[in-house]
Amino acid sequence: MKEQSIKPAYSLLDITKYYLKLGTWGFGGPVALVGYMHRDLVEDKGWLTEAEYKEGLALAQLAPGPLAAQLGIYVGFVHYGLIGATLTGLAFVLPSFIMVVLLGMAYQLYGGLTWMQAVFYGVGAAVIGIIGISAYKLTVKSISKFEWAAMKSKWLLWLFYIIGIAITAITQKEEVLLFLACGILYMLIKAPPEWIKRPTIIPAGILLSVGFWNYNGKTLQEIGWFFLKAGAFVFGSGLAIVPFLHGGVVKEFGWLNEKQFVDAVAVAMITPGPVVITVGFIGYLVAGFPGACIAALATFLPCYLFTVALAPSFKKIAKNASIKAFVDGITAAVIGALVGSVIIIGLRSIIDIPTALIGIAAVLGLIYIKKLQEPYIIGIAAIVGLLIKTL
Fold first, then answer.
1. CA–CA distance, 181 with 123 (Å, rounded to integer)
2. pTM of the shown model
3. DSSP secondary structure, 306-348, as one string
């Protein structure tokens, strides 16, 4: 996209300050965050046109990585290019990164104490309910509604979705090759590219006590590669990264156990900004502050690079039916994997009647109390957990 000759209605400092505030106080997950951006930047401030916002949202859905962070990077790019994209991205992610590092320090210090275990007893169950509702919303939004006519017209995407659930639940890990295969197959069936139709040539102190600086060089390298793949192959909502992380962090590398992983997801829920920032908490538990930095940088780097690389020519790219079909196929399998992950984690977090009731209450609260946000549910669940374990 060419930079507009008309001077924007806001300065680089203005847009950076806005994303710093959104990253500090923006609770509610990716759907809420992109809604805040539309309300503030398009409706209230008039900094972006409706067309510019929709282009950014479309690009964020097409490219891999966390949805809200990508949209923020694109908004910074619209009028201020590379430096705008960089500053808005950093401003959006930095507040929640600092929070999860501090929570990681507290977790290392107090994670073994009875009261901390009681808190996460309730929180872990509530997280299952929250992720379950998010998985349902993602399914309806990205595949189709649970109506026979809609499901029949999207039967292949539903097949990918079911395969994603089954493989994840059975193998208890994520298969990136499955995602790519679904994307390629759907593209070839629905919108094969021109070079397929006419084959020619294929285109080319306290810090020490909480392990603040404790790390292993080989582990840092493994963290970097793993989280780089997580950022490059996960599309849509930040919660879509959960099953991928579970497969690697718990099953493949054994960096965290099941309880610690659920706690990491809970930390992402109680902090503002992008849900994906849980990678910073995970990285901290595995390899201290260096691990947190490497995990966060590796996860957000792909979405930053994709966004700034595609933004200038996105209007043309967005109309490409093959690219849309490829992303649709991947998304169906990824959301199926998210549901499979909910099943796996749920079997380990819902361990008795109280945790089952907490999980059900979280689901019902999100469905019937429209203004109830995830952090409030997490806070209530923490109190309930404390009461159950202490009384």
1. 36
2. 0.69
3. HHHHHGGGHHHHTT-HHHHHHHHHHHHHHHHHHHHHHHHHHHH
Classify burial at 8, counting beta carbons within 10 Å of its beta carbon; exposed 0-12, middle 13-18, buried 19 or more.
Answer: middle
Radius of gyration of the chain (CA): 21
- How far is Cα 96 from Cα 276, in angstroms, rounded to an integer? 10
**Residue 164: Cβ-neighbour burial (10 angstroms; 0-12, 13-18, 19+):** buried
365 within 8 A of 378, measured Cβ to Cβ: no
Residue 254, phi then psi, degrees to nearest 5: 70, 30
SS3 of 348, please? Answer: helix
CB 198 within 8 A of CB 206: no
Cα distances from 155 to residues 68, 160, 190, in angstroms, run 29, 9, 12
Per-residue pLDDT of the chain (391 residues; tens, 9 = 90+): 444 446 788 899 999 999 999 998 876 566 668 878 888 998 899 998 887 887 787 777 667 778 788 889 999 998 899 999 999 999 999 998 999 898 888 888 876 657 777 887 888 888 788 878 877 877 887 788 888 998 999 999 999 999 988 987 887 666 667 877 888 898 888 888 776 666 544 444 555 555 566 666 678 999 999 999 888 876 655 666 777 788 889 888 999 988 888 888 778 777 777 778 889 999 999 988 999 999 999 999 988 998 888 888 876 666 678 877 887 887 788 778 778 877 877 887 788 999 999 999 998 998 888 777 777 888 898 899 889 988 7
